[in-house]
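[job 0417] fold request received: Addiction module antidote protein, HigA family
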Amino acid sequence: MLMLARLGYIGYETNHLCIFKNLSHDFAGILDTALRLAKFFGTSAEFWLNLQSDYDLKTTMKKSGKKIEREVLTQHEAA
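[job 0417] inference complete; emitting structure tokens
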């Protein structure tokens, strides 16, 4: 998602390019990263969490959206 040449600026000792992907969606790691990015860029942790959430939702919709539409009934259909 977010590309940085050097993650040392936010306290990581590695040069991985995709921060959130490298955390394997470990929620505690995502929270930690959001706080670090917020401090570095002068934004809020919520901004980074919302960005990640939007990305995850869009990715999941592309991957599973049609299958979910076929398999899951609405509450009215199930009644």
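[job 0417] notes: The chain has one domain: 7-78. The chain has a mean pLDDT of 77.
[job 0417] exit 0
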